[in-house]
Automatic annotation (TrEMBL):
Substrate binds at R207, V208, G209, D210, T230, G231, Q232, G233. Keywords: Autocatalytic cleavage, Hydrolase, Protease. InterPro entries: Ntn_hydrolases_N, Peptidase_T2. This is Isoaspartyl peptidase. SUPFAM superfamilies: N-terminal nucleophile aminohydrolases (Ntn hydrolases). Transmembrane segments: none annotated. The active site is at T179 (nucleophile).
Length: 313
């Protein structure tokens, strides 16, 4: 009996959504950000193309984005109200429903790597604050001083947000939010998702967003879909968006794209809240939906073709 044919792998990522005015970055910075998206996709796809698991691919993809200064995760994470970094991440294996998460870490270089280590340990599956960093150090994961995570752009963003507070003015979405995430389908048909963030600029110390919450900002279930979210985390938590997308696909028969568009239209856009989602369904169809001016995004599809974009046009 001949072996069952393998699927062609697919991987997709987002690097956060927002107003994203083209003047936000220089032409060189936009080009560098797109190049880092390509590198992250290629890091994940290399694992998939060799028959590796989806969960390893999304980990590698998100780690590459955490190491880039252009995205709000790891090196380049947002600064909180005290001028420090608190990092959130989560990962989920759609084949087993195992998941891991970290909230409020301050030292681990790659929070998504710690999340996967917790996933593999099973209990505890989530650690927060100093315990997360202590666990990382005890298990040989690289830790860094807070200064490693700070970039000039993030320091400037904190000053801008503090100025808004003093003047009583409102900040744009691009000044506030940012997240990175990846979803993948491997050759065995297994799905996985991972998300990582520094939260939003000038956030309250100790605030935890949806990127650390399985079912809110991250969700994967074999046979249905894998999802990673970006935008105002509180809204994703309130509506358990990651799981809600999968539930609408599973029980209401919607496509992944339909489910995401409905949720954004129902619970985000009417309240003027920005949000975006990257997802893959069980057949390998990629969906990238957002209600903001832009969202860093890219994927390598089942034909091995690479796509990268930042804005709607």
């Amino acid at each position: 009996m001949s072996p069952a044919p393998t699927r062609r792998p697919v991987i997709a990522l987002h690097g956060g959504c927002g107003v994203m005015s083209r003047s936000l970055l220089s032409e060189e910075e936009w080009a560098d950000a797109r190049a880092d998206i390509r590198k992250a996709l290629e890091a994940g796809y290399a694992i998939l193309s060799e028959g590796g698991p989806a969960v390893a691919a999304v980990e590698a993809c998100v780690m590459a984005l955490e190491d880039s200064p252009h995205f709000n995760a790891g090196h380049g994470a947002a600064l909180n109200a005290a001028g420090g970094h608190e990092l959130d991440a989560s990962i989920m294996d759609g084949a087993t429903a195992l998941a891991g998460a970290v909230a409020g870490a301050r030292a681990v270089r790659n929070p998504v790597r710690l999340a996967r280590r917790l996933m593999e340990q099973n209990i505890p599956m989530m650690l927060a604050g100093p315990a997360a960093d202590e666990y990382a150090a005890a298990h040989g994961l690289e830790t860094m001083p807070q200064s490693y995570f700070t970039t000039p752009r993030r320091a400037e963003a904190l000053q801008a947000m503090r100025a808004h507070d003093r003047l009583g003015t409102f900040a744009s979405e691009s000044e506030k939010h940012g997240t990175v995430g990846a979803v993948a389908l491997d050759c065995d048909g297994n799905l996985a998702a991972a998300t990582s963030t520094g939260g939003f600029t000038n956030k309250a110390v100790g605030r935890v967003g949806d990127s650390a919450i399985i079912g809110a900002g991250t969700y994967a279930r074999n046979g249905i879909c894998a999802v990673s979210c970006t935008g105002q985390g509180e809204q994703f938590i309130r509506h358990v968006v990651g799981h809600e997308i999968a539930a609408r696909v599973r029980y209401a028969g919607h496509s992944v794209g339909e489910a995401i568009r409905m949720i954004l239209a129902e619970t985000f856009t009417p309240q003027g809240i920005g949000g975006g989602v990257i997802a893959i369904d069980h057949a390998g169809t990629v969906t990238a939906e957002f209600n903001t001016e832009g969202m860093f995004r890219g994927w390598i599809d089942a034909n091995g073709e690479l796509f990268v974009a930042t804005h709607k046009d």
